[in-house]
Structure formats: structure tokens, C-alpha cells
């Protein structure tokens, strides 16, 4: 989501012999299309809901509020449950689809699950672009949400299993990078289509989601399934052949034997969800759940979903608000590059703590400016102060993009042990989707009732999560996954009490 997806990292005892083959390059393109698709969905909804022709056709009550001054508070112009449902229905559908996708990923494989995701994306795009009523719009968003659920489960696993060890970490944040590029692309599209005369620009905005959707679908047809998936389903020879193909070398026996052994160990865990609740797995579970909740309570998705609406609310004209959203989208992309460079140099905790200070201060400045200048029925937001709001929003977005954006997914993916990694990923995804839905559905109403206080609300949560990181989040930089328990959890002042070998205290 703006949070984006993460690639579960799989630790290896050493770096196996491997080349960066054409298959691996294609998998990178596949990652890009999955990230672009999700990012485009995040960015496009806020833009079209700020377009008068779209509002006039589907949300006439909201359209009337935005056109007539003095009949509604500036903070409440867009407060409409139907309008919020248009955005948030995607994430509720994604949450539901994740459970089915977990089953298909395990039984049909990563490739087939990605194909299903692509088909859902294409169908959702058709429904949205051709919509003649609100029902068609919502059905389209639900289909897109099913695509997100299936892609979220399959693409990260596919990437982590097909990538050579030495570039696995880079691929993790590369996926997040492509999500931010998708958001930027959506903002640019909205800026262009808003200028189309005739009032049909919103159809083009929604329809262009078909480009990454088709890329994902075709990509899933071209690539082979991962060796891990094939071996786990009992196709040992196919798995070995696939491993030779993606590694580009003939000597794959050491990696092949490790995958076979990992599959054997994983298959012995009959109830992974129950195993996830054991006492020794609670630290990883608590960290994963809290990271997803905190990621959404930074307020980032509220800003990325509704950036044009937000800028309209504080006094920008329609074109200016879309332009401002493009700027924040570009900052999001560039700041994610910062994370790629520093995450393995400075570590996770430093990035999160620094960003916490930056996000807290920028949101408080926005709250003060809006509190002093934007009243219920009037605004005195000068050009200089409006520029300050944009700068502060960009400051906030940049801090998020090099911290909670990629790290909110990276840290949970690298902390779960092998036997609970799949179940842990499912829980991580589900919690993220639940809270993404809650924020997407509630933000505009919260803006209406809290007014400028909405930024104080989110800055309070930034303070809470920063204290959490300072006290309870261990550093996982450069720690092999198979050594995480001994080198991280057993050494932590609080979590080590859960790492005893006695399982009598299991949940």
C-alpha cells in the first residue's frame, strides 16, 4: 500500500552458485507489474474522486457540496460513505481473497495464483472503466481487491524463491519501489485526464489499470513455477529442472537438497496457524502485527488515497490539487531509493526512529497551519502557506517512504522461522488489509469531525510507534534468518523470556 507488499526473505546457509538469468530478469518485470498494479489502484482512486464529472455521475450529493460554497464545512465536503466505500471496498475484498489465495498458492503453485490475480485485475478494470452506476463501480473495485489478495500472497513468495540469495533483499524493496512508481503514474494520469473535455477522463484513468494487469497476466504465463513450489507439491524432477533453468548452472545439488529438506520440515507442521501461536513465536507475531497496524496509523494511506481531495479541502483548485498529488508521488518514489541504499548500511531501527521524528514534526506543522487558516466555511490559506502545506506533506511522505513503507513489510518477512513463515505472511497481510480498509473507509469522516485535528491524531500514533521501535524492536540488519532466534530474540532484553525451550507454556 503505500505500504505496498514485501518479499518474504528466505535465509540460506551460504550463497549458492547462480547467475542472473533471463528468467530472473523476467521475474523482476513481473514484480514491477504487481507493484505497479497495486500502486496504481492506490493512486487512481483519490484522483478520480476529485474529478467533478465523476462526482456528478456517481456521487451527486458530494458534487453539490463541492460546487456550492457555504452549505457545507470545508472539512466535510467529501464526507460520504458511498464515496469512501468506492475506495475501501478493494481492501475488504483483498482481505477476504487472501484466505483463498493462501490455499491456491500452496496447492496450485505461485504461477497459477498469479495468473488468477491477473484475471481478477483485468475483469475489475473492465467493470470500472465501463461503469454506468455505483454498483458496477463497487463490483469493479471488489474484483480488483480479489486480484490484490491473490497477488499479495503469490508474487512476494515467487520473488523470494526465484531470486539468487545475493539480490533477494534488493528485490524486496524493489517491489515497494514499483508500488510507489504506480502511485506516481496514477497521479500523472489523473492530472492529464482531468483536462479532457467531455467529462470522460475518469474512464481513461480507471481503464489504464489494464496495462499493468495485462503485464502481470502475460508474465505469469511466460515464467515457470518456482522450484520450491514444485518440490513442495511432490514434483521433484520438475523442481530440479526449474532450479537449473533459473540459476543458469548445472551444479544445483546443494541448493536442491536444501529446498527438499526445507519442504520436508515445513510439511511436518500440520497446523501452521496453531504453531504460530506457540510461546516461542509470540515475539515475531507481535512485531508483525504491530508493524502493520502502525504502518497504517502513520496516516500515509489516508494521504495517498485522498491527496487530491485533501488539497482541495485546504483550498487548492482542482488542477492545483492534482499537481500537488503528483509532487508527493514523485517524492515517494525518490525517498524509497534512499531506503534501498541505506537499509543494509544504517539498519532498520535508525531509519524508523529518524523518520518518526520527521513525520511527527511535519504533521504537527500541517495541523497548526490548517487550524489557523482553514475554518468550516472560509479559508485564508495564502499561496505561501499553501506551499508550506505541500512541503510538509512531502516531508512526511519522504520519511515514510524510507522507513515504515518498505520496513513495515521487510521486518516481519525476515523474522518468522521457516515452519511458520507462510502462516506469518498470511497474518501480516490480513492485519494490513483490515487496517487499510478501516483508514480508507473512515478518513474522510474523520477529517470532517476532527478537522485539522486529524493530523494531530496521526502524529500521536507516530509518537507511540517510535517509542515501540525504541524499546521493543530489535535490529535485524545483516542477520541470517536461520540465526535470527539465537542472535536477535535470545539477546533482546524483553523477548528472550519467550525463547525458552520448554513448550509447556505454549498457547
In short:
The protein is mostly helical and 507 residues long. It is built from 22 helices and no strands. Helix 1 runs antiparallel to helix 6, helix 4 packs antiparallel against helix 5 and helix 4 packs antiparallel against helix 20.
How would you describe this protein?
The structure is a single chain. This protein is mainly alpha-helical and 507 residues long. The chain has 22 helices and no strands. The chain has helices at residues 22-48, 52-58, 60-67, 81-107, 110-129, 134-162, 165-193, 201-207, 210-222, 227-232, 236-247, 253-268, 272-276, 282-297, 300-313, 318-342, 348-373, 383-401, 404-415, 418-450, 453-472, 484-487. It is globular and about 70 Å long.
The shape, in one word, is globular
Parts with pLDDT < 50 across at least 5 consecutive residues = 4-14
Q: What is the distance, rounded to the nearest whole angstrom, between the alpha carbons of the first and last residues?
A: 32 Å
Gyration radius from CA atoms, angstroms: 23 Å
Secondary-structure topology with pairs:
Blueprint: H1 22-48, H2 52-58, H3 60-67, H4 81-107, H5 110-129, H6 134-162, H7 165-193, H8 201-207, H9 210-222, H10 227-232, H11 236-247, H12 253-268, H13 272-276, H14 282-297, H15 300-313, H16 318-342, H17 348-373, H18 383-401, H19 404-415, H20 418-450, H21 453-472, H22 484-487
Task: Jot down its keywords.
507 residues; mainly alpha; 74% helix; 0% strand
Amino acid at each position: 500500500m503505500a505500504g505496498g507488499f514485501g518479499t518474504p526473505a528466505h535465509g540460506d546457509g551460504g550463497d549458492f552458485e547462480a547467475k542472473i538469468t533471463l528468467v530472473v530478469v523476467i521475474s523482476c518485470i513481473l514484480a514491477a507489474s504487481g507493484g505497479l498494479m497495486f500502486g496504481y489502484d492506490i493512486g487512481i482512486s483519490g484522483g478520480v474522486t476529485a474529478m467533478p464529472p465523476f462526482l456528478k455521475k456517481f456521487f451527486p450529493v458530494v458534487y453539490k457540496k463541492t460546487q456550492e460554497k457555504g452549505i457545507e464545512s470545508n472539512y466535510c465536503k467529501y464526507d460520504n460513505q458511498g464515496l469512501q466505500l468506492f475506495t475501501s471496498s478493494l481492501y475488504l475484498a483483498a482481505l477476504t481473497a487472501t484466505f483463498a489465495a493462501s490455499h491456491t498458492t500452496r496447492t496450485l503453485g505461485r504461477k497459477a495464483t498469479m495468473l488468477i490475480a491477473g484475471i481478477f485485475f483485468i475483469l475489475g478494470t473492465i467493470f470500472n472503466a465501463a461503469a454506468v452506476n455505483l454498483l458496477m463501480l463497487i463490483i469493479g473495485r471488489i474484483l480488483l481487491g480479489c486480484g490484490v489478495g491473490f497477488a499479495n500472497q503469490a508474487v512476494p513468495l515467487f520473488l523470494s524463491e526465484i531470486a539468487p540469495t545475493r539480490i533477494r533483499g534488493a528485490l524486496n524493496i524493489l517491489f515497494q519501489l514499483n508500488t510507489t512508481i504506480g502511485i506516481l503514474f496514477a497521479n500523472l494520469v489523473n492530472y492529464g485526464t482531468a483536462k479532457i473535455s467531455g467529462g470522460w477522463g475518469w474512464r481513461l484513468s480507471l481503464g489504464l489499470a489494464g496495462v499493468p494487469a495485462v503485464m502481470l497476466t502475460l508474465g505469469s504465463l511466460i515464467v515457470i513455477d518456482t522450484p520450491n513450489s514444485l518440490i513442495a507439491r511432490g514434483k521433484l524432477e520438475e523442481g530440479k529442472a526449474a532450479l537449473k533453468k533459473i540459476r543458469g548452472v548445472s551444479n544445483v545439488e546443494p541448493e536442491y537438497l536444501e529446498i527438499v529438506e526445507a519442504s520436508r520440515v515445513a510439511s511436518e507442521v500440520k497446523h501452521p496457524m496453531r504453531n504460530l501461536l506457540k510461546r516461542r513465536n509470540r515475539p515475531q507475531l507481535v512485531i508483525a502485527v504491530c508493524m502493520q497496524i502502525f504502518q497504517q496509523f502513520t496516516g500515509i494511506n489516508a494521504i495517498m488515497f485522498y491527496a487530491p481531495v485533501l488539497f482541495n479541502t485546504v483550498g487548492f483548485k482542482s488542477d492545483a490539487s492534482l499537481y500537488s498529488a503528483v509532487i508527493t508521488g514523485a517524492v515517494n518514489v525518490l525517498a524509497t531509493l534512499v531506503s534501498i541504499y541505506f537499509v543494509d548500511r544504517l539498519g532498520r531501527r535508525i531509519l524508523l526512529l529518524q523518520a518518526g521524528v520527521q513525520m511527527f514534526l511535519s504533521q504537527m506543522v500541517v495541523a497548526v497551519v490548517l487550524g489557523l487558516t482553514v475554518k468550516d466555511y472560509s479559508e485564508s490559506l495564502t499561496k505561501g502557506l499553501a506551499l508550506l502545506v505541500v512541503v510538509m506533506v512531502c516531508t512526511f511522505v519522504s520519511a515514510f517512504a524510507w522507513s515504515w513503507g518498505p520496513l513495515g513489510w521487510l521486518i516481519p518477512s525476515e523474522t518468522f522461522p521457516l515452519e511458520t513463515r507462510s502462516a506469518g505472511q498470511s497474518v501480516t497481510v490480513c492485519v494490513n488489509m483490515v487496517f487499510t480498509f478501516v483508514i480508507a473507509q473512515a478518513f474522510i469522516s474523520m477529517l470532517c469531525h476532527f478537522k485539522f485535528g486529524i493530523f494531530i491524531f496521526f502524529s500521536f500514533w507516530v509518537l507511540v510507534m517510535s517509542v515501540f521501535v525504541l524499546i521493543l524492536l530489535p535490529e535485524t540488519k545483516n542477520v541470517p534468518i536461520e540465526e535470527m532466534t539465537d542472535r536477535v530474540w535470545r539477546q533482546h532484553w524483553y523477548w528472550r523470556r519467550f525463547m525458552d525451550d520448554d513448550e509447556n507454556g505454549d498457547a
